[in-house]
Amino acid sequence: MAPGIDPSLVTGAWREGDPPGGRLFADLGDLTLDSGATLPDVRLAYETWGTFDGSNAVLVLHALTGDSHVVGEAGPGHPTDGWWGSVVGPGRPIDTDRWFVVAANILGGCQGSTGPASLDPDGLPWGGSFPALTVRDQVRAEVALADRMGIDRWHAVIGGSAGGMRAVEWAVEHPDRVERLMLLATSAAASAEQIALSRTQVAAIQTDPAWFDGDYYDGPVGPLAGLDLARRIAHIAYRSETELQQRFGRATEMDGTWSVDSYLQHHGAKLVSRFDAGSYVVLTSAMDTHDVGRDRGGIASALSRVTARTVVAGIDSDRLYPLHQQQELADLIPGAGPLAVVTSVHGHDGFLVEAEQVGELARDLLADPVERQYIRREASAAE
């Protein structure tokens, strides 16, 4: 097991009885899944910022290992700082003095929403009996949350990576409820390579001797080594070859360990301390199902349903979600402008790291026409 991992840890999931932090909870009842199964007693954990005035709600959708804690410091109930605090907040591009921002932990996640670490109707952890999900199932739960909150129409839905998958599903399935749309470093359908990487990560977890077919929650240890390895595989794909070479090259640590290996160990240990292996399997498997064209006449037919004014952005160094995938979205969504290309050495993670470039795209999307002209004049003057 990698250094820095507590060998007695079973899961990094938030569990009933833990401090709630800034979370609110919505009990949504039973949810019928694409598989035909019914998931009972669904709960989503969510957080909000700002004040709802009936027309200013913005939905921010997190990526695979994110959660509802978009803004705020680490503390009881929240193991890390908010993941997009440089973009969302008072005076930020997504200004919470103006917009009512909502972020929910994804269905199947492990930070307060119903997932494998949650208790089933019998009061036991769901574990390996938790049903398979699709991206559409996850959006179905978010729709139920919006209904519960009295939000009939989002001023904007914004998501990157796995969050972008859900964002585009929102706009395709519920075009009347999405006024504006921002898709970052995402795709219309999961590619063969993305699925291959996903299945390799799932295999790393499921071959861990402590996996126990997903029923490890009441045991002495969880599949920590498998989750650590899965994260390391993913993290290589999240960054760019150029960045890794520039930062680490062939350097070694004092103990002879390759510096790049120490870096991956660090990120694996960080995730293990705050995430759950069962959720990782469920969520990556759900991402594999992503295909907006399924049962809708193909991708072009599905995207033609979108009525939202749309910004599609990609990262020029992203090898996991390459630019041609965002170009397809920009070409086929009727209300999309030209593809916005974010310049970054950070690869796929550029949608989280390049706050200034991404923030300006969000600010422009949310602005009214007069404000957009001003923003663009300011941008041109700065060049």
Automatic annotation (TrEMBL):
Localisation per UniProt entry: Cytoplasm
Binding residues annotated for substrate, in chain numbering: 231, 349
Residue intervals passing through the bilayer: none
Cross-referenced Gene3D superfamilies: alpha/beta hydrolase
Keywords: Acyltransferase, Amino-acid biosynthesis, Cytoplasm, Methionine biosynthesis, Transferase
Domain AB hydrolase-1: 56-347
PANTHER family in the cross-refs: HOMOSERINE O-ACETYLTRANSFERASE
Subunit structure: Homodimer.
Family the entry assigns: Belongs to the AB hydrolase superfamily. MetX family.
UniProt protein name: Homoserine O-acetyltransferase
Organism this protein belongs to: Aeromicrobium endophyticum
